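During the reporting period the student researcher (J.K.) took over the structure-prediction task from the postdoctoral fellow and processed the backlog of single-chain submissions. One of the processed entries is reproduced below for the supervisory committee.
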Amino acid sequence: MRGEAHWSALPESLQFELDSAISAWRAAANQGLSNAQFNLGLLLSSREGLPGLPHSDIESAQWFTKAAEQGHVEAQMNLSTLFTVGCGVEQSDAKATRWCKIAAEQGSIDAQFKLGIMYYIRKNVQSDKAAAHWWQKAARQGHAVAQWRLGLMFAFGQGVAENQEEAAQWYIMSAEQGLPEAQYTLAVMFGGGCGVTQCDLEAERWFRKAADQGMTTVEYKRSVKNFSWLYAAGWHNSRTEEQRSMFERR
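J.K. obtained the following structure tokens:
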């Protein structure tokens, strides 16, 4: 491999320093230091590997588990991902959700958003109410995509009572952070006077902001329908076509 050739070419002095560093990381990890366990897990997950520390999905997962059990949020998130795809561990949606929820309950904005995705699209745990709950937590911490999706949940009464004014407020917060999908949605709201006072000038302003980022009507519909924001996060959409089309009805 290209990475192995690179590492094998290290000068002897640097190789000694690397060996010493790996020994120190292992020692710290074996002593129960969660940061060392997490970092060791990261190094072991490297596809290139290191001299004296070859790539191992299984050992990587073991160290992430040790760190996660001590409350290391990033390790919990990584472990959730490993269980999602079955890398180094047996694939388990239940365990993936469990570890993500543990991280989310500690206040991780990324975990809260990801947990909302899990509850929204995973058949075995699907719950619009739970999805809205966790997206709202992430949205309150300033997660732009969570704010936009929460707005859509309020707009169509999914997991929450339908409330166009509430939807508009979340769109505004997301749009002001520069999310083109939210800017486009907000433009539509102002154009139709839905949840906000009708205003052509505001509609045009937000349409222009979205367009400046390449957001066209075609791109917007594709983004909403295909849930590209989920695929980018590494998830597969298991919702039905009927459920997906709900976000295109207005």
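The committee noted the following: The chain has two domains: 13-106, 136-250.
J.K. will present the remaining backlog at the next meeting.
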